[in-house]
Amino acid sequence: MANATESIAVERELVIAASPETVWEFLVDPAKAGAWMGRQSWSEPHVGGVYRVEVIPGHIASGEYLEVDAPRRLVHTWGWEGENAVSPGSTRIEYELTPEGDGTRLRFVHSGLPTEESKASHTHGWDHYFDRLAIAAAGGDAGTDPWLSGDMS
Hints:
- The chain is α+β, with helices and mostly antiparallel strands.
- Helix content is 23%, strand content 38%.
- It is globular, with a radius of gyration of 15 Å.
- It starts with 7 loop residues before the first strand and ends in a 16-residue tail after the last helix.
């Protein structure tokens, strides 16, 4: 378990071939979010608003929006409903979007994870979903998410 002065985090940076405004919509609009992550989502993108996504059948992540600065910065809490290790609101997700050429540089930090094992699990998930986000936000078809049918490889 991490002590109070240490934070276990997943950090990623990628460039997406879409404007910050477009990428932003894929982060907050439930109709667009499903193109890259989850079976369904609920989003109230304002400070204090609810964030929920059924990532795979029966596994719902939820939290609360802490910062909403469209289309530059988005921060919300995160955790899994019904799970004690990473419970709802127990971790923090930060997205920073900056223009880069014709695209967007997305900087991502998921902090406050309780163990290296939870970091490894979340890293696997975020890597999978960011590949899909890059395709969908750029106007492509990421296809049906194989994880929705149980193929987690």
